[in-house]
């Protein structure tokens, strides 16, 4: 049955409904505190909402002072065996500041696709890549079909567990656009038409943050990923899992599973890698033409490789989540094709966690090696001093 009513009556009832919802919708109130004397932004806060019964509803985050609704994202890790469900948002917190946020239960809404800047997917139309991006950077790595093509002598394959970089210089997503161009014209994304391009050669190198195990004077590495699983895409984070076939490191059988995620506003991808068969792992950055400048800081836990790059310059970097585990840096140079890499080696106990990425001068994000190294040092400082979250109240 359809009910007709005058517009003014409808607005009064709507306002009453909103008022009632506002009074009852709040489920949690939290404060976010900044322990550093620098302002913080583009850092993701995670709230465990495993015990919240959404019942087909959703959540919104509201700044108590400004009344602004903050962009947020719910991530459910249960499909990959983790028990927690988390709410993500990125507050702006002043130096030594503190802000309070209400988390409200709201009616589930259709996600605005224009907000999906953190994105990843399996790409069967380009053999079997897995690609991921945010508003600043993009990456890809390679699957079993590409590996088999190389092993069978079929042209067009790729055999590497290295991480390839796609040098974008626009805020909007480019993965689907570039692959679509590549279907129409082979190799089209190797040309810059104003958005950036793929001119980063990875080969068998570690690319931007691939891992290896040192064996005497050389390094053993895995092959391509064997299976993949996308966990989430969204305005704040994209996250996925890659599995690898067991590989040999001079008689030691290594097993490897990568949980990879990339957050909005960051140039560095997070890697949480579970490993068996070794108690030491090296993370690498490809040296390309071996004409770059190396910078390392063991105490802060980062390394950098800044190099001339075609008509611009490029910085690669790794920030370790546990600087205390670092045992050595090694600028490993060899005449073997694509095997020269800058490495940081770390002790591990079943897993390694680190962040790896790049900054392209032509994107306008970084002007010099000094700018890039400052970014890595600040990233490390913020990792060591995360935003502090306190739950103030809950209706449960």
From TrEMBL:
InterPro entries in UniProt: DUF4861
Keyword Signal recorded: yes
Residues spanning the signal sequence: 1-21
Domain of life of the native organism: Bacteria
Taxonomy of the source species: Bacteria, Pseudomonadati, Bacteroidota, Flavobacteriia, Flavobacteriales
Pfam families (UniProt xref): DUF4861 (PF16153)
Keywords tagged on the record: Signal
Protein's name in the database: Uncharacterized protein DUF4861
